[in-house]
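TL;DR need structure tokens for one chain.
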Amino acid sequence: MPKYQANAYLAHAGQIVKVGEILELTAEQAERLGDKVTKVETPKRKKEKEVDAS
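>> reply
TL;DR here they are.
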């Protein structure tokens, strides 16, 4: 699931989420919360090059 940063205090999965904390949400959940969350872009990992053992 994508990660989002809270821009306001939220209640999620029975826990209080403080401003600035990261949480995982579905796209639908994030859409409902609107500007209360911001999507966190995670850098894509580069694929490791295969090493030829010869």
